[in-house]
Amino acid sequence: EQSLKLPQNEYNEIKHVIGVMSGKGGVGKSSVTSLLAMGLQKQGFKVGILDADITGPSIPKMFGLHERPGNYNDCLLPVTTSSGIKVMSINLLLPNEDDPVIWRGPILAGAVKQFWTDVAWGRVDYLIVDLPPGTGDVPLTAMQSLPLDGMVVVTSPQQLAQMVVRKAIKMSSQLGIPLLGMVENMSYFKCPDCGKEVSVFGPSRGEQMALSEGIRLLEILPIDPALAELCDQGRVEEYQTDAFSKESL
Amino acid sequence: EQSLKLPQNEYNEIKHVIGVMSGKGGVGKSSVTSLLAMGLQKQGFKVGILDADITGPSIPKMFGLHERPGNYNDCLLPVTTSSGIKVMSINLLLPNEDDPVIWRGPILAGAVKQFWTDVAWGRVDYLIVDLPPGTGDVPLTAMQSLPLDGMVVVTSPQQLAQMVVRKAIKMSSQLGIPLLGMVENMSYFKCPDCGKEVSVFGPSRGEQMALSEGIRLLEILPIDPALAELCDQGRVEEYQTDAFSKESL
Ligand SMILES: Nc1ncnc2c1ncn2[C@@H]1O[C@H](COP(=O)(O)OP(=O)(O)O)[C@@H](O)[C@H]1O
Ligand SMILES: Nc1ncnc2c1ncn2[C@@H]1O[C@H](COP(=O)(O)OP(=O)(O)O)[C@@H](O)[C@H]1O
Ligand SMILES: [Zn+2]
To answer: Quick one: pLDDT at residue A246?
Structure first.
């Protein structure tokens, strides 16, 4: 079968491309993408994040990026975070971060392709692709056109979320993208006053789901108000966690 | 300007069409759609829900609907919940609820149009349209093709969510859809043991945001494990709340 995968441009030497997907919005894909990138960066790898959530881009805000991308010959240059992670996102190109991108499928898909073909990422060990919710144009184009080595799937405890996440897992399998691991996010909440652990969104089902889908469980993350706050302040790199610190993908 | 709005088919007499949108996934659009429909039904209105989240449909699971839609002449018949709310969703038409719908924009948009032109809703006072996250094909088609009377916007306290929700607000305004009200969901969590109220996702900003956008604040809803559990069990209609009980839209 003729590979639809787009080749790397002349400026890039990207060793691995990892997708982060959930199917269901709001489970924490962008947060997991950020923490995974930070964990790999701390281990000494060169890391980039391609924010493919064109209509709901959160990455620049989480890292507090306000600079506009520069140019290098015919390419865009990614913007670099304080710890050295390279980022490209539509929100870096818009006049205001809350301007809507009202595009139909083919244009959205085209933008994702351009983030691969027209960006000078340089030498990168891991390029993490933060995918939007759903199983429409953008996830389909990313799986068909980007040379994804594998997919990390993010879920939360609700059965409702897991139903939709299983759609994403089935899609990855149908398109031949290996499933590298699963993260269960917002698994429980620890009361700051009395220390009680409450399963706000229901009992943790991460291990059970990973087992039934035959995927490695990478992390189980609690609901942590400190994470939400640092993301809102553009300081996610200050979040203290040992999640993803020993990950080998 | 030539109206692109699709006329009602011969079987339908739908008085009001209300969209529920957020832009950001996971803030609780489908839950608010369900609670709003239940509140209007309790006030004696005839209510329907058009689940336009084609790749992430949650409505049938929340109401525990497993029946397949029947036919009436050349139309599909919506499935009715235990309290009498009429529902149409792609998940009612799939063999398995976790099968992915891997469609590109034009097909997704076409499905939403068909839920309007090819479904015999009958006499309905309020048809609530649950929109998917993002500002792509489906929200755009819904705003251009369905005769939406207005939009209810759902947000959560995080500034990150609000940034993306403002994209949806700007899109509605650009397309001339009136904003009927805003709901802030997951606003705080009350510890079941010691009763402390924790702003898990940051301080409530619902009132401030509604004021700055010039929209009525309809409800502020807490994180309630009972809601998540009932939604997972298909029993959302058993959720006790006086939210949306006095709403007039
Ligand atoms: N474990 C967590 N604890 C607290 N807040 C979280 C957690 N994970 C995500 N969040 C917050 O929830 C919101 C949604 O997360 P995000 O990563 O944007 O989800 P997605 O990309 O799946 O839509 C963000 O504001 C984020 O800061
Ligand atoms: N106020 C709440 N308290 C507890 N759980 C909630 C609340 N609102 C939503 N949920 C749960 O969170 C998940 C996401 O909600 P959903 O309505 O599907 O969001 P969206 O439609 O915006 O993606 C669901 O499992 C739902 O049951
Ligand atoms: Zn407590």
So the answer is: 85
Give the binding-site residues of ligand 1, using a 6 Å CB cut-off: A 22, 25-31, 58, 185-186, 221, 223-224, 227-228, 231; B 25-26, 158, 160-161
Which of A30, A31, A32, A156, when mutated, tests ligand 1's pocket best, judged by the most ligand atoms within 8 Å of its CB?
A31
Q: What is the 3-state secondary structure (H, E, C) of B147-177?
A: CCCEEEEEECCCHHHHHHHHHHHHHHHHCCC
CB–CB contact A160 B232 (8 Å): yes
Contacts of A170 (CB under 8 A, 6+ apart): B98, B99, B100
> Please, which pLDDT band fits residue A2 given cuts at 50, 70 and 90?
low
**Which helix H or strand E contains A44, and what residues bound it?**
none
Residues 81-140 of B with CB under 8 A from A: 97-106, 108-109, 132-137, 140
Residues in contact with B230: Cβ distance below 8 Å, sequence separation at least 6, in sequence order: B236, B238, B239
How remote is the CA of residue B196 from the centroid of ligand 3, in Å? 6
Counting one residue from A and one from B, how many pairs have CB atoms under 8 Å apart?
199
Residue A3: its pLDDT value, please?
73
Mean pLDDT for A46-62 is: 97
Mean predicted confidence (pLDDT) in B98-116: 96
Number of helices (H), then strands (E), belonging to chain A: the values are 7, 12
Assess A205–B contact: CB distance below 8 Å, yes or no.
Answer: no
CA distance B205 to B7: 39
Q: Which amino acid is at A72?
A: Y
Per-residue pLDDT of A72-116, as tens digits, reads 999 999 999 999 999 999 999 999 999 999 999 999 999 999 999
The C-alpha angle with vertex B96 and arms to B91 and B99, in degrees rounded to 5, equals 80
pLDDT of B238 higher than 70: yes
- Give the number of whichever ligand sits closest to the CA of residue A164: 2
